[in-house]
Design brief:
Elements lengths: L14 E8 L3 E6 L5 E7 L6 E8 L5 E9 L12 E4 L2 E6 L2 E8 L2 E8 L4 E3 L5 E12 L2 E12 L5 E6 L3 E2 L2 E2 L5 E4 L5 E5 L3 E8 L2 E10 L4 E8 L2 E6 L3 E6 L5 E6 L4 E4 L5 E5 L10 E8 L4 E9 L8 E6 L5 E6 L5 E7 L1
Antiparallel strand pairs: 1-30, 2-3, 3-4, 4-5, 6-7, 7-8, 8-9, 10-11, 11-12, 12-13, 14-15, 16-17, 17-18, 18-19, 20-21, 21-22, 22-23, 24-25, 25-26, 26-27, 28-29, 29-30
Length: 342
């Protein structure tokens, strides 16, 4: 693997590219809380059966630790925060046999425990972990898998409570829980099947569901909270919507035009990757930075395209302190890009 430093055009005023690193089979990324390291999941074999979780230094691109190599599936088009996350001293990643958690302290990583689950979300305001498990139930005389939302104590992994979501909302079938997102205060939790977003209130070991659901219309790409009362969503058509959490009313719709999306931790920015482009027609592509809540274009971060083929931004993520932004770009030759705030 080689690392090169790219040039940033005069357009970019908020971020500067500091790392460009091709990584074979790259499929998921997550920053350390201070943005100095990035956790990377990537395939180690051409058959794409084995995944490696490694820690990279964002300045040099050097591998600092390899935590696990195991069977698993991963796609850069997945909602990244629900299969790889680093919050505080906890690093969490999913593999075929479940969710692994490590305690990260002073540059060392100690495996804490493993849970038999796939989708998860770390609560930013409390020591809790939300996961999804499937249990078989008899529905209409047929034994079918049924999704449960389970809350765990993050330190021990012990179950606090679980919630069984309704299978339909206003007559629309709910396809299961495939995405999760906590509110900033940790008192609410979004669950989604990619097309409908439901709002849960969490009070200790009690979970209750609101009366209103957000019907996205197109497949959901990313979601977050602008504040404890306002929800942000971006769908596959790059439509940004803001919603009132209290009644599910849509407040704003903006067309961003992009192939991936992420919200900054402080919800000041939403970033999207420009749509796929042919380098023969367009020698440079950009990651676009929009200021919230108006979604006004505030910055563009250029990245160079290869001499042939089609490239696009597949995944974007911020560090918890908002000082770094990373992207996975290109499907045939995936490359890790990292920008640092100026």
């Amino acid at each position: 693997m080689t690392q090169t430093t790219g040039q940033v055009s005069a357009q970019s005023t908020r971020f500067q590219e500091i790392l460009r690193l091709p990584i074979e089979g790259l499929c998921a990324i997550a920053f350390s809380p201070d943005g100095t390291q990035v956790a990377v999941k990537h395939y180690t074999d051409a058959a794409r059966r084995a995944l490696e979780l490694a820690i990279y230094d964002v300045q040099s691109g050097a591998v600092q630790a390899v935590l696990l190599t195991a069977a698993g599936k991963c796609s850069p088009l997945d909602y990244a925060e629900n299969n790889l996350a680093w919050q505080g001293q906890v690093l969490a990643a999913t593999f075929e046999d479940g969710l692994y958690l490590w305690q990260a302290t002073n540059g060392t990583f100690e495996e804490a425990y493993r849970l038999e689950t796939g989708v998860f979300a770390l609560d930013p305001a409390a020591n809790r972990l939300a996961t999804v498990v499937l249990e078989k139930r008899v529905e209409g005389g047929i034994l079918e898998p049924y999704p449960y939302l389970v809350l765990h104590d993050l330190t021990t992994g012990e179950e606090i409570t679980r919630y069984s979501a309704r299978k339909s909302i206003d007559g629309d079938l709910f396809l299961g829980i495939s995405m999760l997102a906590w509110s900033p205060n940790g008192e609410q939790l979004l669950i989604s099947d990619h097309y409908v977003v439901r709002i849960l209130a969490v009070n200790g070991d009690e979970i209750t569901e609101g009366e209103h659901a957000l019907k996205i219309g197109n497949r959901l790409q990313a979601f977050s909270w602008l504040d404890d009362a306002t929800i942000l969503t971006v769908d596959r058509l790059s439509l940004l919507h803001t919603w009132k959490a209290a009644d599910g009313e849509q407040q704003r719709e903006v067309f961003l035009k992009g192939s991936a999306a992420a919200f900054s931790p402080d919800r000041r920015w939403v970033v999207v990757g420009d749509e796929a482009a042919n380098p023969n027609d367009d020698p440079e592509n950009v990651v676009k930075v929009f200021a919230l809540p108006e979604a006004a274009l505030a910055d563009t971060l250029p990245f160079s395209l290869s001499a042939e083929g089609v490239q696009r931004v597949l995944q974007l993520t911020f560090s918890a302190d908002g000082t770094h932004l990373a992207a996975i770009i290109d499907e045939s030759n995936p490359t890790l890009y990292v920008w640092a705030a100026r």
